[in-house]
């Protein structure tokens, strides 16, 4: 437990490793043990994160361990691995490859060792399944670039990997997505609207694939509790993957844990402004500002998203 009974949700975390847990419906401050007890009956526990935030990844590992103590039948599902790399994940869990081989073979995220190693190692050491839940990166990239029709051009064996109705949607999610992109890019012309629409369908492909993979894991391990780690946009406000889980399996019970960045100039935790983000909230410090110089930021973003010369999709302009 990272804070005592004398602390409350208005006590700002002192380091980037710390969190403050709260029940979103009551505002009650929770210890890790109390949270685990409240989550004990959930079929699926979705832990949203800000990618690369130390407190988020530490809390995910602590929740995984606390829930295992209550229910040893557990499955770890991860956005951070794509379904076409499931064999590489399984090979590592079974001892057929070493960690560096696993990282290379699974196309693991660059921050794997710092952020996700504890989750995978806990599962490996306890013989628990790990589900590579995300859609294949090439499919997501090409849908985002050329549109949802890209899936129709895929070979039958690749189409068979995907969920039925891979672009199932919810109106509230589209509204949130559009509002987020509009705030970043301003008013959109026709070309921008087409790009936004394609990007949204790529997002839906991720969410529907993750929902489908979680449900497949439930079917394969009906007595197990599923822990799913994901970027918070995919789960907060019970939208994205969570909404699609409920659409595909209305009777499944899903608990959502969402991060809230504690504003640097706030004296109290803004619980009332964030109650709808999840069933439970964890308050964390903001990460440092990446750039002050706008020109350097623009150059860095351009380099980050520059398309490799061999990165092509059917329908790309010559």
From TrEMBL:
It comes from the Bacteria. Keywords: Lipoprotein. InterPro entries: Cofac_haem-bd_dom (IPR007314). Residues 296-318 are annotated as: Disordered. CDD domains: ChanN-like. It holds the Pfam family Cofac_haem_bdg. Residues 35-244 form the Haem-binding uptake Tiki superfamily ChaN domain. This is ChaN family lipoprotein.
């Amino acid at each position: 437990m990272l804070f005592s009974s004398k602390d409350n949700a208005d006590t700002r975390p002192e380091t980037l490793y710390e969190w403050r847990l709260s029940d979103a419906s009551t505002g009650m401050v929770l210890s890790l043990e109390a949270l685990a007890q409240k989550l004990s009956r959930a079929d699926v526990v979705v832990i949203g994160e800000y990618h690369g935030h130390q407190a988020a990844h530490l809390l995910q590992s602590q929740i995984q361990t606390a829930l295992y103590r209550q229910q040893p039948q557990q499955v770890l599902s991860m956005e951070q691995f794509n379904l076409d790399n499931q064999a590489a994940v399984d090979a590592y869990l079974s001892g057929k490859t070493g960690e560096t081989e696993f990282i290379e073979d699974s196309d693991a995220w660059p921050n794997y060792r710092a952020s996700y190693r504890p989750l995978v190692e806990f599962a490996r050491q306890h013989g628990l399944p790990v589900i590579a839940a995300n859609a294949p990166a090439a499919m997501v990239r090409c849908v985002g670039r050329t549109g949802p029709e890209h899936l129709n051009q895929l070979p039958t064996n690749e189409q068979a990997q995907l969920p039925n109705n891979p672009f199932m949607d919810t109106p509230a999610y589209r509204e949130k997505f559009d509002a987020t992109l509009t705030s970043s890019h301003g008013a959109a012309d026709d070309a921008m609207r087409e790009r936004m629409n394609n990007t949204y369908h790529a997002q839906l492909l991720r969410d529907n694939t993750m929902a489908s993979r979680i449900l497949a894991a439930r079917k394969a391990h009906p007595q197990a509790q599923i822990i799913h780690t994901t970027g918070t946009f995919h789960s907060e406000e019970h939208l994205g993957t969570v909404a699609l889980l409920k659409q595909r399996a209305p009777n499944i019970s899903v608990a959502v844990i969402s991060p809230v960045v504690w504003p640097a100039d706030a004296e109290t935790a803004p619980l009332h402004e964030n109650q709808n983000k999840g069933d439970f909230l964890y308050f964390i410090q903001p990460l440092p500002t990446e750039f002050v110089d706008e020109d350097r930021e623009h150059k860095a973003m351009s380099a980050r998203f520059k398309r490799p010369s061999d990165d092509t999709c059917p329908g790309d302009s010559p």
